[in-house]
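User: quick one, fold this
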Amino acid sequence: MRGKNRVKATNMLILALDSSAAPASAALLENGKILSEFYINTKQTHSQTLMPMVESVLKLTNKTLDDVTCMAVSAGPGSFTGVRIGVSCVKGLSMTRNIPCAGVSTLRAMAENARQLTGIVCAVMDARCGQVYNALFRAEDGKLTRLCDDRALPIAELLEECKTFTEKIYLVGDGAELCYKTFAAIRAELLLPQLRFQRASGVAMAAQEMVENGQTVTPDALMPIYLRLPQAERELKAKNAQKNNK
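Assistant:
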């Protein structure tokens, strides 16, 4: 299939990046073991912090880009600018060496933090305009099973869907607090901050499954996943629609 790039599942070294929200992070995973992770949450832009973090996680583990067998990135949903920076960084680093890439769902990556729990993992990011980006997963016996595709929907609609589950519901993501009070009637649990937000280590763990399932792509085929048009494009589209209706 065009754009596919299969990686051998043995002797994996995955370099993963996340810049889909305000924090940014980089991690190195070798055969299921996190060798290093660098996380920063400051007012510096991701274009300033990602490359120094990449250099640090490689240097401190005595690894180089030549050792990396797969590069992974949270490809969205999330901040349009942050996602674009992360994907561009991975494409640039991997292209000269033709390193296979894994574009990981940001929602899937943050669900990794709840893998060892038992129940429904509700991954939510604030999509603004009264909506959240969401995906639902079932966590059981250390495994995650996806229950729906990534989507953008109103919080009230998500609540009605979650009411149908009998299992415990765990909220993760930067939209978790936004949903918490609304979800009080179903006794959803808000994970602790250190487990709530997406990190590059979660991206790496999710990417490992993609590698094992032959779901990597070539660097030129790696693309952001926005789910919605950027605000500027949505506003332009709305203005054009108003003009056409006059």
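User: anything notable?
Assistant: The CA atoms of residues 236 and 242 lie 10 Å apart.
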